[in-house]
Recover the amino acids of this structure.
């Protein structure tokens, strides 16, 4: 029984990690808590669902559609909202407040366009094969989510650590002004980061919509709340932290459902968040950013 | 006075809601003026509302006592969580307080025997009179107005500008932050207690993320430079859905759009004395 719980915890944790990757990437490079990431996640799921139900595209093609649409949305958010705020040198809380507004607009627009009800992908498209080994059961979809989140995490990590692009991004994270003086195309890389993070959010939206078999306008909000807990647990802006924080949260939730009861599941995430903030405000991997007197 | 009678019949609820919202906007303004983006005000409002309602419904307490309880409970909670939480700054504080709000919501949802769980509390006696709300707004405004001009208010301003510099000037930064946080919680609790005894019903979903955003929207829209801003913001956000009845379904969407547009184009909010002078006042400088 415990083995099965561990497998469930692994797949749930990777679901959280997948969402948190884009979220933490934006914070790491732009220094913005993008509270519209949950809405972008929802946009991705709806985009995929639309091309599947209206145009009869395959699941793979719909993933691509979600990627393109959400990247475009991320780019638009950066161009129309985050860029003017950067130019004005607004205090770091201001972009966060703006993205709260954006999330409300997106969520309500989805409700107006597609209705508040819970939509589903056609059941014949959802892969439902189950794998059995060593007495535990895992669906193909869960395997895909686990593999994808580990692969994306590894890719992002290598790009950030080992490539010229990653060095440029880390320089920007340290100081955009200094990076610009070194000849780095700062604005271009901001756009790239926003679009990449949004694309990650959109794709995870499709996978998680398949995993939980539900597409609805507010689907991003609970995920956003979990994502906040994950990146605080893992350290804000840290790529490895997103995966480890996600796994940690998934594990804690599954175990609390198994041994305490399902009603307190949502309190676990934020209870944990509180404890971590108490003991290690910078998260498990985060660096101390505060200026010392 | 007949027209007034009928006007009051139709609109008293709306007008009293403006008062309650003004209190909420002022409660978050207070923490903002000290440089803290604490998003726990909806939770504090909820704690106040539940405490006061349980006091009147289960314990049969008189209304003033219930109000006192509704103020005291969130203040105590704020003092308890303030210690660890207020060490955090900027976005970390916003996230932690957002998380705290979720914990409160889930706890209310699960403490069914006391709070009625998801069904909420029904049939709260309607004890709140119009003058209670008016008095509460006036008293809170007076206290905050006096506070702003006191040493404490100046300290808040200094911390808001630069906490490190303020501490080097000998200001007890943590104590002042705690004061702003606890006082904000007290005002939010008062608003919650008054509102619960106005609307008969409270439920856990009323005090979630959306309410927190609503409160923040009012203050950011109105402007944070003074006390006028939050009150003006509360007035507009409360009246807007009434004025735009035909857009009912998009009420929340409008709130979101306003939030984005204000942040982009009027960074100091609607009530920004400097800008207003440059627009209208020729004589003033």
């Amino acid at each position: 029984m415990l083995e099965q719980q561990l497998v469930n915890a692994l797949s749930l944790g990777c679901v959280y990690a997948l969402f948190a990757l884009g979220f933490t990437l934006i914070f790491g490079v732009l220094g913005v808590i993008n509270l519209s990431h949950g809405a972008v996640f929802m946009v991705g799921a709806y985009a995929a669902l639309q091309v599947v139900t209206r145009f009869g595209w395959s699941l793979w093609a719909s993933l691509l559609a979600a990627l393109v649409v959400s990247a475009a949305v991320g780019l638009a958010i950066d161009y129309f909202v985050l860029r003017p705020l950067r130019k004005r040198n607004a205090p770091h809380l201001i972009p966060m407040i703006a993205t709260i507004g954006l999330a409300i607009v997106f969520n309500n627009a989805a409700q107006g366009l597609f209705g508040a009800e819970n939509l589903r992908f056609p059941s014949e498209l959802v892969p439902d094969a189950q794998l059995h080994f060593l007495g535990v059961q895992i669906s193909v979809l869960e395997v895909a989510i686990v593999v994808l989140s580990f692969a994306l995490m590894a890719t992002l990590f290598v790009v950030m650590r080992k490539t010229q692009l990653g060095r440029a991004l880390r320089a920007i994270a340290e100081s955009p002004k200094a990076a610009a003086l070194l000849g780095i195309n700062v604005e271009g890389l901001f756009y790239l980061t926003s679009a990449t993070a949004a694309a990650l959010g959109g794709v995870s939206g499709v996978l998680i919509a398949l995993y939980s078999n539900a597409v609805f306008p507010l689907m991003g909000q609970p995920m956003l709340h979990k994502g906040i807990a994950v990146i605080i647990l893992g350290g804000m802006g840290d790529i490895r932290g997103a995966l480890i924080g996600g796994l940690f949260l998934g594990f804690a939730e599954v175990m609390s459902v198994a041994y305490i009861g399902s009603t307190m599941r949502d309190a676990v995430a934020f209870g944990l968040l509180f404890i971590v903030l108490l003991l290690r405000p910078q998260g498990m991997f985060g660096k101390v950013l505060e200026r010392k007197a | 006075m007949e027209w007034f009678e009928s006007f009051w019949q139709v609109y008293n609820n709306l007008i009293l809601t403006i008062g309650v919202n003004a209190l909420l906007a002022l409660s978050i303004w207070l923490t903002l003026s000290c440089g803290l983006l604490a998003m726990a005000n909806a939770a504090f409002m909820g704690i106040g509302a539940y405490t006061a309602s349980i006091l009147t419904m289960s314990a049969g307490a008189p209304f003033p006592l219930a109000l006192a309880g509704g103020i005291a409970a969130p203040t105590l909670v704020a003092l308890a969580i303030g210690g660890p939480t207020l060490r955090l700054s900027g976005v970390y504080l916003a996230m932690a307080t957002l998380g705290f709000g979720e914990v409160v919501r889930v706890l209310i949802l699960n403490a069914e025997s006391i709070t009625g769980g998801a069904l909420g509390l029904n049939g709260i006696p309607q004890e709140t009179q119009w003058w209670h709300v008016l008095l509460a707004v006036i008293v809170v405004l007076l206290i905050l107005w006096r506070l702003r001009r006191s040493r404490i208010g100046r300290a808040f301003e200094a911390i808001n500008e630069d906490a490190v510099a303020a501490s080097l000037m000998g200001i007890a930064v943590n104590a002042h932050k705690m004061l702003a946080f606890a006082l904000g919680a007290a005002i939010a609790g008062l608003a919650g207690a008054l509102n619960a005894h106005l609307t008969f019903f409270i439920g856990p979903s009323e005090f979630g993320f959306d309410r927190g955003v609503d409160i923040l929207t009012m203050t950011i829209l109105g402007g944070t430079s003074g006390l006028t801003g939050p009150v003006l913001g509360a007035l507009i956000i409360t009246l807007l859905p009434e004025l735009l009845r035909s857009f009912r379904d998009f009420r929340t969407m409008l709130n979101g759009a306003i939030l984005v547009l204000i942040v982009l184009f009027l960074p100091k909010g609607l009530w920004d004395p400097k800008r207003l002078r440059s627009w209208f006042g020729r004589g003033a400088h």
The two ends of chain B are 43 Å apart (CA to CA).
